[in-house]
Write a structure and sequence with these properties.
Blueprint lengths: L2 H21 L3 H4 L7 H34 L16 H22 L1 H12 L6 E8 L2 E6 L4 E5 L5 H4 L17 E4 L4 E7 L4 E5 L4 E5 L5 E5 L5 E7 L12 E6 L1 H21 L6 H15 L1 H4 L23 H10 L2 E2 L2 E2 L4 H10 L15 H13 L11 H10 L1
Parallel strand pairs: 1-5, 4-10
Antiparallel strand pairs: 1-2, 2-3, 5-8, 6-7, 6-9, 9-10, 11-12
This protein binds heme C and copper (II) ion.
Copper (II) ion binds next to loops.
């Protein structure tokens, strides 16, 4: 095979490989997801352009090298050159060509599209709607200030699948009880905040990956052009529940979005009404089990046994090893006696879940769960995991403590 043939074969192989991902049907499987926002399209364009350019450069460089190894070998009675620097105008021209070519590729061919996308990403002007996104250990909370609605979005993958006791479904760890619903063809401003540590809001199909830093407000925007469900994840290691705070966005046409807003308002009004309703112990426990699995199990574990040194058990009668100050605090609140976890007084239990325990990871649930949900989860905690207090906490009791502190 002649040197030229080798070169041609190598070149077409590498270029072919570079174009393959662009054509392939199943591109999202091993490449970028199909972009649905202007930013994501920009990002993908730059990626593809870059891939093609470096593939050509790579092929040219390696091809030349292989050709030289073949054609200039000692076997062919070639001798090494002795020059140390270019001489004459022609050689200088050859020597400076790669340098100039790289400058043009970096600052013009790739530089201009890259600058365009960075500018576009920062341009939050003209947004038609704002959604406030708050990251928590370990779920996202979404608020729509213009509509007066908001909710938290918790992982809904069952614990059985996480613990390998059931087969994992298609969207394992990428499913939530309450997705973020957004209208298509509207510029939506996302204002991001964190209540604890650094998280990152990442939805690949939107081309958005924004760090969320406690103490700062960060902004980004999306304008989704295709209805559908888009999935993302927290992309900044934020603690043991990092893998359990996915982002699910449901994009719907504007008219359908308005319907959803109306339904959401009605749902929130119905939740308000539950604060004065009364429920049976069985009803509360049934609801409480769901609330516990999606809001508490990340820390206290789905079996209620907690984690030594970090998260106290909910199950009474269990020993708990932790630092002396933590044990003293548990004892003072009435949840720890003679080296064992105990069920503790009801008012303290309600206060802890409502307001959290400041200075510890135990969060406040007053804004996130309704009075009925808090009543349910406490009733559940006090009557499961081997606990048998028989206590039934009604929403009104929680509501009273919530308002009066
Ligand atoms: C982010 C982790 C985390 C989550 C989520 C969490 N807790 Fe806690 N919880 C803690 C920690 C840590 C403590 C112990 C705080 C201390 O005293 O240092 C605690 C303490 C408690 C206590 C008092 C002590 C005890 O031993 O029982 C109760 C009651 C409690 N949590 C209930 C809940 C309920 C109910 C939920 C869900 C609605 C929940 N927690 C969600 C971390 C968490
Ligand atoms: Cu996170």
């Amino acid at each position: 095979m002649s040197g030229e043939k080798v070169l041609r074969l190598g070149l077409s192989g590498v270029i072919g490989a570079a174009f393959l991902p662009v054509r392939a049907q199943a591109r999202a499987f091993y490449n970028f997801q199909t972009p649905v926002t202007p930013i994501a399209r920009d990002v993908l364009f730059i990626h593809d352009l870059f891939l093609v350019i470096i593939a050509i450069l790579f092929a040219a460089g390696i091809g030349l090298l292989l050709y030289t190894v073949y054609a200039h070998s000692r076997r062919r009675h070639r001798t090494a050159a002795t020059f140390t620097q270019p001489v004459g105008r022609k050689q200088w021209l050859w020597a400076s060509t790669p340098f100039v070519a790289l400058l043009i590729i970096d600052y013009v061919v790739l530089g201009i599209p890259a600058l365009h996308s960075i500018w576009a990403l920062a341009d939050t002007r003209g947004a038609e709607m704002t959604v406030q996104v708050t990251a928590h250990q370990w779920h996202w909370q979404y608020q729509y200030p213009a509509y007066g609605i908001g909710f938290s979005s918790d992982l809904s993958t069952p614990a059985r699948q996480i613990d390998d006791r059931a087969p994992k479904d298609k969207h394992f760890l990428l499913e939530v009880n309450h997705p973020l619903v957004l209208p298509t063809h509207e510029k939506v401003l996302l204002v991001l905040a964190s209540s604890d540590v650094i998280h990152a809001f990442w939805v690949p199909a939107f081309g958005v990956k924004q760090d969320v830093v406690p103490g700062y407000l960060r902004q980004t925007w999306v304008e989704i052009d295709k209805p559908g469900v888009y999935r993302g994840q927290c992309a900044e290691l934020c603690g043991v529940g990092h893998a359990f705070m996915p982002i699910v966005v449901q994009a719907v046409p504007p008219a359908q979005f308005q319907h959803w807003v109306a339904a959401e308002r009605a749902r929130e009004a119905a939740v308000q009404a539950t604060a004065s309703a009364t429920y049976s112990e069985a009803q509360l426990i049934l609801r409480g089990r769901q609330i516990f699995q999606s809001n508490c199990a990340a820390c206290h574990q789905s079996n209620g046994l907690g984690l030594p040194g970090a998260f106290p058990p909910i199950a009474a009668g269990h020993p708990f090893a932790a630092s002396a100050p933590m044990l003293a605090a548990l004892r003072a609140r009435g949840f720890y006696r003679h080296g064992l976890i105990v069920e503790g007084p009801v008012p303290n239990h309600i206060r802890i879940v409502l307001h959290g325990i400041p200075g510890t990871p135990m969060p406040s649930f007053a804004a996130q769960l309704s009075a009925a949900d808090i009543a349910a989860v406490i009733t559940y905690e006090r009557n499961d995991f081997g606990n048998h207090t028989g206590d039934v906490i009604e929403p009104a009791t929680v509501a009273a403590l919530k308002d009066g502190h």
